[in-house]
Amino acid sequence: AEAAPGAVHVPHWLDEHRQRALLTACRGWARPPAGLRTVHTPGGGTMTARQVCLGWHWYPYAYARTVVDGDHAPVKPFPAWLGELARDAVADALGPEAVPGDPYDIALINFYDGDARMGMHRDGDERSAAPVVSLSLGDTCVFRFGNTETRTRPYTDVELRSGDLFVFGGPSRLAFHGVPRVLPGTAPPWLGLTGRLNITLRVSGLAA
Ligand code: MD3
Ligand code: FE
Fold first, then answer.
1. What is the pTM of this model?
2. What is the ipTM of this complex?
3. Which of 8, 36, 68, 108 is most buried per CB count within 10 Å?
4. Which ligand neighbours the alpha carbon of 202 most closely?
């Protein structure tokens, strides 16, 4: 369903098998070196969702090849199968003509536990207008999809559940968005995950 121009929500895009496989992969990527870390913003803030990156390491507000704000290890590689998953997602959500020519080369994986949330922000650190692919695992969250002008209203709240795909292309690529809350205990029992995981797949537009 199109939530806004270029923003398409596909509930239950990942079946049980693919959700389990993606979770297992995420648990491996979370391990050190270059594993899960707490992100500190230059203004003195601390993000409550913890993060691990593949391909390029995101730190507020740029990309690097090493964990410049953590253990300084080289960032883990971005596997080819994740790139295929991203292209499949864009083709299913927006159509084959929307699949970018440049390869997907970044995964940002956010782990939400306890009272973790994410404030309203825009993702502007990629030098590519390619659609961003978002996959959710575990607890349901309230995802707030805003406008391109301000971090305030008007916005639309959408529940994202385990297995859901959301693709942000076209004008929605630069829209403000955030996660005001996660609904505890809503993960599918067969997944074995307490909390929520979100995987975003992106095109850096940076030189390999
Ligand atoms: C709209 N993640 O990683 S997913 C992020 O659930 C991020 O962890 C949230 O915002 C999460 O930057 C929201 C939905 C999402 C992700 C990336 C976007 C929406 C987006 C990029 C551009 C526009
Ligand atoms: Fe974002």
1. 0.98
2. 0.97
3. 8
4. 1
